[in-house]
């Protein structure tokens, strides 16, 4: 692994699965986990073992199945959680325990009725205990986005002293602006003693639509892991979308940050997660939405037909989509109609096209989208073809 390789930590099966009403059964989780491994993610967070017997079973079965990725289980900074997670992970080739505690003033005061010093002590003890079971322990500082940087640095140092290999800095409430989140990472890189013994991880929520931007700012400023979910699913407005951060890093090579994801499997996995969870993906969703590579206005279609580069920054095949789509609507021009007509077997002359286009506009005003059957009908019923 190079210093510039960003670890992709997938939490579709843990944070993603916290979407209300979308429980997956163990069989569905195993299918998704195997595909995530095939996609090339570095870590699969398989669940929260102490939360239910079903979650325990899923983490245990996924641990047995996965050949390449690290398998991770979530815990609170509670001994029994950690013991149960270690038991669920015992068959994993490379297990990781992900333990932690809330660190912001509101978490310390209202959730724990405690003090910073006592929280720091609990964090240290939790990591130390987790280390008695596994080598790889990730510590999370819940609500780090709203935690004072000086305290965050202190608790990160304590976690490193106890043996943490990864320090997760969650923007749990999706509150941070990208420059703030980036500055937080920079501060930790510069102020945490022993930081060279661990890596920083971005875990961003999307309440303000900034999860992807924040994660990218995080890695630009030194973090080396991104926690994300397929389609960005997760509690409330969701988590960072895996397909977005991976494609941003791929399409911007000058950042000199890469991942080990085989991007050609992204679309298929997006479909699988959406179908298994019964959560449809919005059509304009970046990278994997139905319209991500569809062009409908006349000006764009004309540009696309001349050269795809004019309106596409990603080759759809790179994410597993067969081809871009030229969608025919009343806003389409002659170039798009000629292009689609040719695809279904009609090579129209300029004169024929003028006539067919007039007929097409009548149809398109009535029908939102013109499909291949409509094209046949429009052409065959045009004057020039009678
Ligand atoms: O958003 C969050 O803070 C989390 C932690 C439990 C890692 O999901
Ligand atoms: Zn989260």
Automatic annotation (TrEMBL):
Pathway(s): Amino-acid biosynthesis; L-leucine biosynthesis; L-leucine from 3-methyl-2-oxobutanoate: step 1/4
GO terms under biological process: L-leucine biosynthetic process
SUPFAM superfamilies given in the database record: Aldolase (SSF51569)
PROSITE patterns noted in UniProt: AIPM_HOMOCIT_SYNTH_1, AIPM_HOMOCIT_SYNTH_2, PYR_CT
Classification via InterPro entries: 2-IPM_HCS-like, AIPM/Hcit_synth_CS, Aldolase_TIM, LeuA/HCS_post-cat, PYR_CT
GO molecular function: 2-isopropylmalate synthase activity
EC number(s) on file: 2.3.3.13
Domain Pyruvate carboxyltransferase: 6-267
EC main group: transferase
Keywords from the named record: Acyltransferase, Amino-acid biosynthesis, Branched-chain amino acid biosynthesis, Leucine biosynthesis, Manganese, Transferase
Entry-linked NCBIfam families: PRK00915.1-3
Protein family according to the UniProt entry: Belongs to the alpha-IPM synthase/homocitrate synthase family. LeuA type 1 subfamily.
Protein name: 2-isopropylmalate synthase
Organism this protein belongs to: Subsaximicrobium wynnwilliamsii
Upper taxonomic lineage: Bacteria, Pseudomonadati, Bacteroidota, Flavobacteriia, Flavobacteriales
């Amino acid at each position: 692994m190079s210093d510039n390789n960003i670890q992709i930590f997938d939490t579709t099966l843990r944070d993603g699965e916290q979407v209300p009403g979308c429980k997956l059964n163990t069989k569905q989780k195993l299918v998704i986990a195997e595909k995530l491994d095939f996609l090339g993610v570095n870590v699969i967070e398989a669940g929260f073992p102490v939360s239910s017997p079903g979650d325990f079973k899923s983490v245990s079965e996924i641990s047995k199945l996965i050949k390449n990725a690290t398998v991770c289980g979530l815990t609170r900074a509670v001994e029994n959680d950690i013991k149960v997670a270690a038991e669920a992970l015992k068959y994993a080739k490379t297990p990781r325990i992900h333990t932690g505690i809330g660190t912001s003033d509101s978490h310390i005061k209202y959730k724990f009725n405690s003090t910073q010093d006592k929280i720091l002590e609990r964090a240290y003890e939790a990591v130390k205990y987790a280390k008695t079971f596994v080598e790889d322990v990730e510590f999370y500082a819940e609500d780090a986005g709203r935690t004072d940087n000086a305290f965050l640095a202190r608790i990160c140092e304590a976690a490193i002293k106890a043996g943490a290999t990864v320090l997760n800095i969650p923007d749990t409430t999706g509150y941070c602006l990208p420059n703030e989140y980036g500055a937080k990472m920079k501060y930790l890189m510069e102020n945490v003693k022993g930081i060279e013994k661990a890596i920083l991880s971005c875990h961003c929520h999307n309440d303000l639509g900034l999860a992807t931007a924040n994660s990218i700012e995080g890695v630009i400023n030194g973090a080396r892991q991104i926690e994300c979910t397929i389609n960005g699913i997760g509690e409330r407005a969701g988590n960072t979308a895996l397909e977005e951060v991976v494609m941003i890093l791929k399409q911007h090579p000058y950042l000199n940050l890469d991942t080990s994801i085989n991007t050609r499997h992204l679309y298929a996995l997006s479909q699988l997660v959406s179908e298994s969870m019964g959560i449809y993906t919005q059509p304009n969703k970046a990278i994997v939405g139905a319209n991500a590579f569809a062009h409908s206005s006349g000006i764009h279609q004309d540009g696309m037909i001349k050269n795809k580069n004019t309106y596409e920054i990603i080759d759809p095949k790179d994410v597993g989509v067969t081809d871009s789509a030229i969608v025919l609507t009343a806003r389409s021009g002659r170039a798009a109609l000629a292009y689609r007509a040719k695809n279904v077997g009609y090579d129209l002359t300029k004169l024929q096209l003028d006539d067919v286009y007039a007929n097409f506009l009548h149809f398109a005003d009535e029908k939102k989208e013109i499909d291949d059957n409509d094209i046949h009908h429009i052409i065959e019923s045009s004057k020039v073809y009678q």
